[in-house]
Amino acid sequence: MASGLAWLDFSERDQRRARELIQLFLQPESRDELGIGTVRDALSDLLFPGISVIQTRARYFLFVPWLFKEGARRGRRGRELLNWVDKWQRIHVETLRQSNAVDGLIGRVAGARVKILPSTIYWNALLRFGILRLDGSQEIIAAIDPQRRMPEEALREVTGLNESVWQRNLPDAPQGFPDVRELTFDLTPDEADWLSERIQDTTDGTPLAWLASLNQAPTGEFPWGEPLFSGAPAAMKSLLLHAELFSLAMHGAALLYNLLLARRSGELGDERAEALVTDYEQAIEGWAEGVSLRQKALVGWDRLSMWRLATGQNPGIKPQTRSFIEAWCGSGVLSDPLMALKDPGLGQLVAMREREQKRGQARLKNDRLMKQWGGASGSGRVIYRWDRVKTILGDIARGKVDALA
After folding, report:
1. What's the rounded Cα separation, in Å, for the pair 179 and 331?
2. Phi-psi bin for 176: left (phi > 0), alpha (psi -120 to 50), beta?
3. Cβ atoms within 10 Å, residue 315
């Protein structure tokens, strides 16, 4: 019994992760051309655990458990319940559209034919925030009756719990749910308070929990420039500083990589190349100005402390990744950032890293792939899922404001 459940869990989890990775690849911040994503993600998880770049709106954290609980209440189990939840998620795409709730709507373009549903996108976060109390696949959850206590021994074997699979104090769904004429992403005051408490209770001590404890929506362009962190503890500000300096430092490597691609595209006769080369040279000059403004912080940056944090979160960060990042940061480019335009050794370092990562798929050595280049590959600055954080916490803050009004 236990081994069968483990197999189901592994299979479903692998499939879910594969679908998430496909969607992640489509997100600009997630393009990891130089293989620094493990460090970026480790810092992201320290800053904003449970938040993903493919999440869109806060109320999906409620829509998904509401559907599972309601379907189970109606007597559906196993595959029948999963199909029922799938059906209603697709129906709700159209319901939300008709309510003009299209900002952040999963399926906004594809409609009911959307391939990746909210239950897949939000599943890991539901577990992280303690909304889902069992670390299991949707198949396992669908097989459990949340309305009736199983025999103690059987329940412990399946779930490790003696209580409900879902948080017992989950706010009630709207009257008539899921068959409702109007559905929006607006959180009620009770829903906003509850979700805020879930985040605070399960991510205590993180910047995410700090922001969730406030009644304001974050508005800063970057997390390290967010005014709401002005009163945060010193350790939290230190983490934000590491995140800022890593983002700033490695943005230069990303821009240089794209400059190398632009130059190579010109060698292959791409008519856009001259303009692209100019654009990336100017972008590096702009980056150099930003580095100069943060020169003192970069010179005093305790990278050993950053590595302790990152590897503590993800011990699987490869030595080659650390070596590349240290080679870039230790090259002198953070003291003289215009070296990125003048020192061929830095270009060789970046090109070597691409070959190490992609081997035969490295664009700088593969003319076929180079000719398919769209003009930008991971050229944006790392912001650690900040746009999603602002949206989700903004939803919560607006719900709280309604409660205070």
Report:
1. 61
2. left
3. 8
